[in-house]
Amino acid sequence: MTADMIFVFTLLGVTIALFLSNKIRMDTIALLVVIVLALSGIITPSEAVSGFGNSVVIMIAGLFVIGEGLFKTGVAASAGNWLLKVGGDSEQRLLLFLLPVVALLSAFMSSTGAVALLIPVVLSMARKSGMQPSRLLMPLAFAALIGGMLTLIGTPPNIIVSAQMREAGFEPFGFFSFTPIGLAILIVGTVYLVFVARHLLPKTEIRDPDNSHPSLIEFSERYATHHQLHKLIIQPESQLAFHTLADLGLRSEYEVTVVGIQRKGTWLSSLMPVLANTQMRHLDILWAYGDEANIHRLCQALHLRSLDFHDAELAKVNETFGLAEVLLPPSSTLINLSLKDCRFREKHNLSVIGVRRNRTPLNTEFSHTKLETGDTLLLAGSWQHIQQLEQHRDFVILETPAEMQEIPATAEKAPIALIITLGLLITMTFGFIANITAILIAALLMILTKCLSLNDAYKSLNASSLVLIAGMLPLALAMEKSGALSYVVNLLANEYGHASPLMLCAGFFLLTSLLSQFISNTATTVLIAPIALTVAQMLGIQPEPFMITVAIAASTAFATPIASPVNTLVVEPGQYRFADFAKVGIPLQLIALLITLILLPIFFPF
User: Fold this and answer.
1) What is the annotated signal peptide range for this record (predicted)?
2) How confident is the model over 224-263, as pLDDT tens digits?
């Protein structure tokens, strides 16, 4: 063993120890590795920082931008809503739908790309359902890695072993040659991740600054309006039809505030906020705030009928309009005016549905109450108008609800974002152009079509994940150039040289899986596949089971966060520690090993 080998092994050991200690941030450790390698002389300083220009890092950065575009346009939220609808509020049921979806995507495109695109979806689901991202993201990453085992193009190791077979004069693997073993691992792995791993996954706090905002329900309870939202239909004989709210003075006469309208049973832009000049029609459905007595009085006087509504309808309403709390400063021009006098809805396109004075809600009859300095108002209206509140100097925004963070900033661009993403998936599946080119084009199109702004694109880049990946790539290069990789391979190959074919396959699986935890699975496969092929030829047995074993094992990068960019991507949003991956990943590796050894003799006889 040379001095360079000893140095690299020592550096690898220290790096792993620091990761396990969880005392230093992982991206900081990665930067330290870069500095040490640059000073060591084993690789050049240029090679030590080459990871920051690596195509994998650039691809992941582009996928962050695409994912943010899906979030800003509401596509991610819509996908999350669908999954929540079919999965409900059950963590297990949700994973049973989510994991096959990401595995199927990974079977035809980059697993890194599939995870990067789905992370915003999962985070959106977690926020809406109250689930912890740490309970969803690691299973998502592992399912993506397993998905790569399903087809020839699912992951580079599959393509490499097939090419090795062709070069050696054997029949290369077909598109679905890997499917029987990969599918079995996916089925058993999904059961493990859904029903067993949940006891091993960490329960971390949801570290999201948006959670400091109260919810819409909390706002309503604060102003005693939580039971005052009603759904009313304008009957044919109602005199409200063909009039505006201002014409009939509903607020001043009945102490009822109408904030939204639904027409002819279809949503107008999901839900149209009612403005001062909005004209009512027969059979319009109105969403209004008011207490039971005033609502009953209004219905009797104007021939309206109250309708029941369910949670799904309320969720739809909350996507279009919401609430905000504002404070009246001494300089406000609203001081000493009543809501009727200041014509609040006409000026601001928002309705006041609650007033608090000295932290106490006023009763519902506050239309004629003169406003005072320090009063806080609860405003209701469209999210668009709520977002414009900052432009007004008559009041100071105290709080906006947490749900406001979920409102897509560019919802009208959702079809464009979806087309761009589908085009990317098709391009990556059929290989029309290089993946990195396709991803960069898609990211640029997201910006040029205004699905997100350039500033939002920069903010979307998860710097800690990118630095971690870029910093660890040179370590794999140092292991290769120092001869450390070849030393390990030859040492273990000699130990298993005289074992039975099945035991040899087990040995190659363990070796490949072990190395894949610290260097790229592509590099591992390139190194070990020729050795496995040579051993099979020396023993006079079929090489297919050995090559399949190497390819499957290379995709079992479950035990460390640096084993694959897929794992690294979920570290920050999931708040995982280094040891969390080993705790959940090692049992999954053993499951994959056991299934492979059982099925190899059936589908690929020796």
Assistant:
1) none
2) 776 788 999 989 888 888 888 777 777 777 888 888 888 7
